[in-house]
Each structure stands twice: as C-alpha cells, then as structure tokens.
Amino acid sequence: MNKTYEQLQKLVSPRYKHIIPKGTGVVNGFIFEDDEVVLSSVVNKALKKVNLNLNDEFKKLAIGYNFTFESIQLLHEYKFDVVSLRDFPWTDERYKAIKGSNR
Fold first, then answer.
1. Which one of 5, 16, 23, 95 is CB 3.0 to 4.6 Å from 90, fit for a cystine?
2. Over the chain (103 residues), what is each successive 10-residue block's mean pLDDT?
C-alpha cells in the first residue's frame, strides 16, 4: 500500500486511529487483522507478496493488534516501524503452544 497518512487513517479500524503517527508524505506497509497476534510466518507471507525496496523513500509501517518478538525482528530487518494496540511479549513458539498449533 502506498498511501498518505490521511488515507491511512481512513483505512484502519477505528480502534487504531489514535495510534497512527501523524506525518506527511507517503507511507508503505501492512495492516494486519484486528484481535490477532501477528506471527512471523504471517509477516513473512506478507513480505513475499510485495516487492519492497529497502532503500526507498517511503516510510514503512506495520499496524496490528499485537506482534510476536520474531515478527517485530523481521519487520525491523525490512526497516518497518511497528504500531500495535498491545505489546505483550509473545514469541511465536509460546503463542502457538497456548493458542493451538493451527496458527
């Protein structure tokens, strides 16, 4: 997605509007589902679907309910800022063990 910050405000669920940073210019990134912990496998799939230039001029932003430690690391490798409603320190392994392995 290549959107302005104003356009991004209109795309996200109302519950995320207050955590979207203010800015000018264009932002590129992902909006993940509400009420889901975002695993690194989900981030990896999203990254594979898009052609990202690590050195482009667009700010990169990932928005979601909560991210695992591994998903945050992966997003940071690709120079994304991570914006989330929760910051519980899940790992992929721990979340899968508690929530079930079908994730």
1. 95
2. 86 89 87 90 92 73 96 95 94 92 57
